[in-house]
Write a structure and sequence with these properties.
Elements: H1 9-12, H2 35-67, H3 96-104, H4 108-111, E1 119-123, H5 129-141, E2 145-148, H6 155-164, E3 169-176, E4 179-187, E5 193-202, E6 220-224, H7 229-239, E7 252-259, E8 262-272, E9 278-282, E10 286-295, E11 306-309, H8 312-315
Parallel strand pairs: 1-2, 1-3, 6-7
Antiparallel strand pairs: 3-4, 4-5, 5-10, 7-8, 8-9, 8-10, 10-11
Subcellular location: Nucleus, Nucleolus
Protein name: Ribosome production factor 1
Domain Brix: 117-300
Length: 324
């Protein structure tokens, strides 16, 4: 009487089992006054949560293996993307109205192969080194593009000169504190003009495990998740920057991936490891775009008519509402 339990770990010579942390149901870390103790208890609580989650996952896997073919289908996890609020402007590929708009919009001459893309890439006034290098690398991604460093010349004067020299698009890279932070894309001669906020810019030398310099072959273009009418217009703007027929021998691909209204740009090269295995090698540069406005016609900051403007307080009320 009064001794330890019969057959305990101590009597058998086995090491004692690790002490399991048991938190009461109403436990709240925020109630702990001591900062160091509060941080320590929070880490222990997170560790226990991870262990319980892993144990439940192993249990479910064993149950599925035991049931075999009779196992129920795996549940689809809920994400912000698949819980997206329905947008009435989502494009139906078989819609006759959409087909008519595409046949008569500003990009119709390009998609009808009546024009060949010719791009002018310029910068804000007196750019710094990082912006200059970014423009030079961007010109190696977009075929038939030319870099012009403007000094004090207004865009309203540049656009007529571009039209006279048969340029089809104008790209302006803006910077703030020596860092590229904005991109203006204007389709010539009739617009539209899109203004993007640019972030997460990485030049080639800043990308780990990058490949060799890109070749002069025309790359493939991949446009992902541009589903609404607005997204369709933006996607057609990006597509019109590249020639129609990619040169597959170059194995290069430019990707514009839209996710939650953020457009991620990546430039890769295919690496054929064997007949069945294919890898990709990033060439750079990489950057992220966020659409701020879409303007009818060419660039006109004073009298321009806007088709769409991003208004944060009115449009960002729900995390599951996307516009592209």
């Amino acid at each position: 009487a009064g001794g330890g339990p019969v057959g305990s770990a101590a009597e058998d010579g086995r090491p004692p089992a690790p002490e399991r942390v048991l938190f009461p149901p109403t436990f709240s870390v925020s109630e702990i006054k001591n900062k160091q103790r509060r941080h320590f208890m929070f880490l222990r609580w997170k560790q226990q949560q991870r262990k319980e989650k892993l144990a439940a996952k192993k249990k479910r896997r064993k149950e599925r293996e035991a049931l075999g073919d009779k196992a129920p289908p795996k549940a689809i996890p809920k994400t912000i993307e698949n819980q997206r609020v329905y947008d009435e402007t989502t494009v139906d590929p078989n819609d006759e109205e959409v087909a008519f708009d595409e046949a008569t919009d500003e990009f119709a001459p390009y998609f009808n192969r009546q024009t060949v893309p010719k791009i002018l890439i310029t910068t804000s006034d007196r750019p710094r080194g990082r912006t200059v290098r970014f423009c030079e690398q961007l010109s190696t991604v977009i075929p038939n593009s030319h870099v012009y460093y403007r000094r004090g010349l207004a865009l309203k004067r540049i656009i007529p000169q571009c039209i006279a020299r048969d340029f089809t698009d104008l790209i302006v890279i803006n910077e703030d504190r020596k860092i590229p932070n904005g991109l203006v894309l204007s389709h010539l001669p009739e617009g539209p003009t899109a203004h993007f906020r640019m972030s997460s810019v990485r030049l080639r030398k800043e990308i780990k495990r990058k490949g060799k310099e890109p070749t002069e072959h025309v790359p493939e273009v991949i446009l992902n998740n541009f589903t609404t009418r607005l997204g369709h217009s933006v996607g057609r703007m990006f597509a019109s920057l590249f020639p129609h027929d990619p040169q597959f021998i170059g194995r290069q691909v430019a990707t514009f991936h839209n996710q939650r209204d953020y457009i991620f740009f990546r430039f890769h090269r295919y690496i054929f490891k064997s007949e069945k295995k294919v890898g990709i090698q990033e060439l750079g540069p990489r950057f992220t775009l966020k659409l701020r406005s879409l303007q009818k016609g060419t660039f006109d900051s004073k009298f321009g008519e806007y088709e769409w403007i991003h208004k944060r307080r009115e449009m960002d009320t729900s995390r599951r509402k996307f516009h592209l």
